[in-house]
Amino acid sequence: MTKHKMRWHGKPGPTLDPKDQISYLASRGITFERVDQNTATRYLRDTGGFMRTASYKSLFPKLRHTDGSSSYIGLDFAELMDLTEIDHELRFCFLPLVLDVEHSAKLQLLYLANKKHEDPYEIVEAYISSLSSGKRQRLMAELENRRGDSDIYSGFLIDKYVEDMPLWVIAEVFDFGDFLDLWGFCARRWHSEELIQVRYLLKDTKDLRNACAHGSCILNGIASGYAPYETPLPLIQALKNAHIASDQEIERWTSNPRTLELLAALWCSNELVRDEQRRTYAHASLDNFFARARKHADWYKDNETLVSCYRFFMLIAKAWR
């Protein structure tokens, strides 16, 4: 390994010095016409970071050279900066939305259980009894460890109800993942294929919530990847009923795992969130995001992936209102 150099997958890369990182990007054909290299260096150092900012270059075409190397075509560093900021706004737009979905899903489960005249204590007992020995022990140990002051947010509830917990309490103290397990149990108990399908969409929404909360990049993966399972039927039907895209476009954006999660979150928000104030807030946030995303639309007019993705999501977000 060359001194002061990193190697990614056996290939030499830049050092941690932002100036060196800028030189590396320039060597890959990235231009600095819309923003000078000094500004770009400060951006990497103070705002975007190299790995995050450079990751969006995957959305642009490359020219392959005879020596096996490649360089990017028509990509300016300003576009990488812009996409980094757009992705930041996307996370800030969707995080409140998916938190509202989580809360509304819990309310929906309580509503359905009441409608089916379930005993709120008996159904929790039945759920816990349905778990494997290992999962049951893990759950009870986790609840025990969170009692009282150990969990400053929910510990008092667990402490009060741990011996005999009703559905409304367990739904409140469960994290999203455990709640989805409870949702699946209820779906099977009530023989509801629809609820089973919705659970898949809630699972995608949960994964998106985690990505947003952890600051994970989203847009850098919209051009590749394939979802590992079939798109849930309620989402496909809703997309077709919106009449805003061809079957090929629907297939394209539901096949990518990241855009599928975004679509699942939008569907769940539209179908599960009933509070008008929260719905209005989500719609306004989406409108603000789309306005920000098209700020430099002329930069991307030849990028079919970005243009098509923007158009598809803008139309579906407006249709599902």
Query: Ends: how far apart?
Result: 56 Å
Q: Could you name the ranges where pLDDT drops below 50 across 5 or more consecutive residues? A: 1-10
Q: Which shape, going by the Cα principal axes?
A: elongated
Largest sheet, described in full? Answer: 2 strands, antiparallel
Give the strand order of the largest sheet, numbering strands 1, 2, ... along the chain.
Answer: 1-2
Count of domain modules: 2
Order of helices and strands: EEHHHEEHHHHHHHHHHHH
Number of strands: 4
The average pLDDT value, as a whole number, equals 95
Over the alpha carbons, how many angstroms does the gyration radius reach? 23 Å
Commentary on this structure:
The strands form 2 sheets. A two-stranded antiparallel sheet has the order 1-2. A two-stranded antiparallel ribbon has the order 3-4. The protein folds into 2 domains: 18-81, no CATH class; 84-320, no CATH class. A hairpin with a 5-residue loop joins strand 3 and strand 4 (70-72). Helix 1 (18-27) packs across helix 2, helix 4 (77-115) packs across helix 13 (257-272) and helix 4 (77-115) runs antiparallel to helix 14 (276-293). It is mostly helical and 321 residues long. The chain is 64% helix and 4% strand. It is elongated and about 70 Å long. The model is unreliable at 1-10 (pLDDT under 50).
List its traits.
321 residues; mainly alpha; 2 domains; two-stranded antiparallel sheet; 4 strands; disordered N terminus
